[in-house]
Amino acid sequence: MENVLLQAFNGLINGAFYALLSLGLAVIFGMLRVLNFMHGALYMLGAFGAYLLTAELGLSFWWALVVSPLAVAAVGFLLERVFLRWLYDLDPLYNLLLTFGLALAIQDGMRLRFGMQGVPYSAPPQLQGALQIGVMFFPTYRLFVLAFSVLVCLGTWWVIERTRVGMVIRAATEKPMLTRALGIDVDRWIPPVFAFGVALAGLAGVLAAPMRNVSPLMGADLIITTFAIVVIGGMGSILGSVVTGFIVGVAAALGAVYYPPIANTLVFILMALVLLLRPQGLFGSAEAG
Amino acid sequence: MRLVVDDLQAWYGESQALRGVTLEVRDGEVVTLVGRNGAGKTTTLRCIMGIHRQKRGRISLDGTDLARLPPQRIARLGVGYVQDDRGIYSTLSVLENLTLPAIAGGDAWSLDRIFAVFPVLRERARHPGTRLSGGEQQMLAIARVLRMGARLLLMDEPTEGLAPLLVRRVGEIIREIKSHGLTVLLVEQNLRFATTVADRHYLIVNGRTIEDLSNQAVAERERELLEYLGV
Fold this sequence. Notes:
The structure holds two protein chains of two kinds.
Chain A: H1 2-32, H2 39-55, H3 61-82, H4 92-114, E1 130-133, E2 136-139, H5 140-162, H6 164-174, H7 176-181, H8 186-208, H9 218-233, H10 238-258, H11 266-277
Chain B: E1 3-12, E2 15-25, E3 30-34, H1 41-48, E4 55-61, E5 64-65, H2 71-76, E6 79-82, H3 94-99, H4 111-117, H5 119-123, H6 134-147, E7 152-156, H7 164-179, E8 183-188, H8 191-197, E9 200-205, E10 208-214, H9 215-220, H10 222-229
Parallel strand pairs in B: 3-8, 3-9, 6-7, 7-8
Antiparallel strand pairs in B: 1-2, 1-4, 4-5, 9-10
């Protein structure tokens, strides 16, 4: 029983990363109709950003937690302005190919500089050790990751549901052309929304740095699962991406306890089922898309 | 506001949808565009609004050339678009649907004024927009462009699919809008309804405006016109 609880907890931690990544993907897809294949590479850049800020500049984890996502946002902003924006009027396939190519370029660039092995990064001293909750001990850093990502997801949800900016994002996601016809300059919001979406990936990268090997391909595997989560949750659905992220994290972890061979394929089985039974996704509406 | 459209042509890929739409809506007028399905009525509105871009010809509003402007700029000049499916956002509440548009000018209706004319919108303000009935959604779509301060309204079949009582209500609202000096270009299939609200009518056939008709002319030639409309 304790093992199951511990696995569920680890599943929640994985889910936290899925949620942050798919939330960014969903926000970007909703507003730009772009399947951002470089999301995993930008997650990796966020982790390396933390490493560089700490190892080279001597800044603490806490500074890295703020600065690295901002730096990733700046990279994303630049890539959007230089590359992506020319392709919005074309078939979405073009932007998918472009972001896929950029992801490969970014990963290879980092591989040339840092090699395949990756670099070590340790959790800040304040978050090392473990906390006792009930009868069980949980690693402090992992508890922090869980709490922090839940807060970020809630904060994003609040902005999208309760502010004027969020209202514009929702409107532009649902009916982009009509939103323009109501006098709203949708295009002005595209660069900041893209930058925000990739900043979430950068943030996830920083959070992952002390837990996972910081290496050029760390985002490559994650991104495939994350795309499956976005599909399961409903393309562009904010709530769907977050909730599905946590569900898949926990489901995969529990799957590993009861039937280990299924752990890695479970998400794709779920995706196939959802596509068969409810093609618009668990939280998607039939008309969006 | 005075809208002038001159020899407007439009394409969807290779196929030509408009072959010469010419019309004028003078300040304070209500003018309808009548024609059968596929004649080009909706495309004409989408061209004026800047949503449809594959087009050629002149469109001007109080002397400003609209043909090359993006929709958001056209909206801010005071053009309100009420599209045929009403365009109510399901992810926005009724109140958000109302307050979403950018305010285009000093004529914007206040929320109090909107709620006085459309009390149901106040009662349902917190509900998702698409939870309203079809008629209520139509009221919301009209209220929304009044709220943004539009002075030229492009309305695409506002009576479509509504019960007779609601059709009458839409008629009353259009007459009220007119009494405030606003200008309306209305797409309509219902000829009888058109004559109760509009000053003049353009008959559009196969992407061309072929006649400019007064209410009297419509009444006299109703049978012939109904054949054009394929009713």
